Amino acid sequence: MTYAEFQTALRSKHLAPIYLFYGEEDFLIDEGVQAIIESTLDPDVRGFNLDVMEGSGVDAKDVVAHASSYPMSGTRRVVVVKEFEKLVSTDTAKEILSTYIERPLESTCLILISLGPDFRRKPFPDLKKRAQLVECKPLYDNQITAWIAERARRKGKEVNAEACRLIQAYVGNSLRSLQNEIDKLFIFVGERKQVTPDDVSTVVGATKGYTVFELQNAIGRKDTKEAMKILERMLDVGQSPQMIIVMLTRFFNQLWKLSDLRLRRIPESEIAREIGIAPYLVRQSMEFHSNFTTDQIERNFKTLLEADTTLKTTTLDPHLVMDLLVLSLITHSSEAAHISL
């Protein structure tokens, strides 16, 4: 079963006598094992009815002895074996475990963990027949933002799509690292229900050095020297060029919307809501807007798209592509630097 199917089965209180967790996403494995322990064993009897062993340092007979023992002061016993593939490295161990797998004790939940099981070799074929297998695969790139949003909803928080994309761009696809940053964000926002891109930049971006918001502010001021310094530092610590492009596109989209709002003489009090920024940033955005004509803003959209395409379709040095991009966004005149393939 998939990890999502396992979660559904566990919520229905259906517990198998043997589980095999396997796959590359160890965060999901750890979370799944912990979920079984918490749903099965009361905290006051956990010390009596929970055994956790390493496959590389335990004998198969000891594992079976623990799994065959009845629970104390409870109805269930949980036995966890990590690195299970190392436990079954000998024929004797395979036979001992296969015998137990054929007739497991119903009051025990035996949890086996293997990052790379070989289902052609015993006892893994026996486990396929008689145990509940839970595959924990890494999420695809396009699944990460939904995962972040769902984790937030579980805690009563809302992280909009833009903030989710920014978290992923800063952190990558490691679920463990993502959860660590999500936890920091929740501490930072406190009782507030909404997590904004500004929050992400402040909390997550701070661990990466300069943030994309500092870069866009330097570009907004047309401070070439500062912008290039910030960009270099961001790239040196591994921040994603694609993330930078996404956020700079957002920045110029806000300035483009501001052109229309100023023409229509929309009050400052309404501008923040219209372009999606905090009210205290309106005056600063208007100052940035005054540094760019509408034609320059529209040409910058084209430049950002060209840079994104170049990064995805060529082997040009990303640092060079981003340097040329920032120079072009600031100068953008007939003699400006342009990205060419």
Question: What characteristics describe this protein?
Answer:
9% strand; 5-stranded parallel β-sheet; 18 helices; 341 residues; two-stranded parallel sheet; alpha/beta; disordered C terminus; 7 strands; 58% helix; elongated
Structural features, described:
It is a single chain. The chain is 58% helix and 9% strand. The protein contains 18 helices and 7 strands. It has helices spanning 3-11, 26-40, 46-49, 60-67, 84-87, 91-102, 124-130, 144-154, 161-171, 175-189, 197-203, 212-220, 224-236, 241-263, 268-275, 282-289, 294-313, 318-331; strands at 18-22, 50-54, 77-82, 108-114, 132-135, 158-159, 194-195. The protein is of the alpha/beta class. The strands form 2 sheets. A 5-stranded parallel β-sheet has the order 2-3-4-1-5, sandwiched between helices. A two-stranded parallel ribbon has the order 6-7.
Short description:
By secondary structure, this protein is of the alpha/beta class. It contains 18 helices and seven strands.
**What fraction of residues sit in β-strands?**
5-15%
Low-confidence stretches: 333-341
What is the approximate shape? elongated
Note the total helix count: 18
Structural class: alpha/beta
Alpha carbon gyration radius: 27 Å
Secondary structure elements and their pairing?
Layout (H helix, E strand, L loop, with lengths): L2 H9 L6 E5 L3 H15 L5 H4 E5 L5 H8 L9 E6 L1 H4 L3 H12 L5 E7 L9 H7 L1 E4 L8 H11 L3 E2 L1 H11 L3 H15 L4 E2 L1 H7 L8 H9 L3 H13 L4 H23 L4 H8 L6 H8 L4 H20 L4 H14 L10
Parallel strand pairs: 1-4, 1-5, 2-3, 3-4, 6-7
Helix pairs in contact: 1-2, 4-6, 8-9, 8-10, 9-11, 9-14, 12-13, 13-18, 14-16, 14-17, 17-18
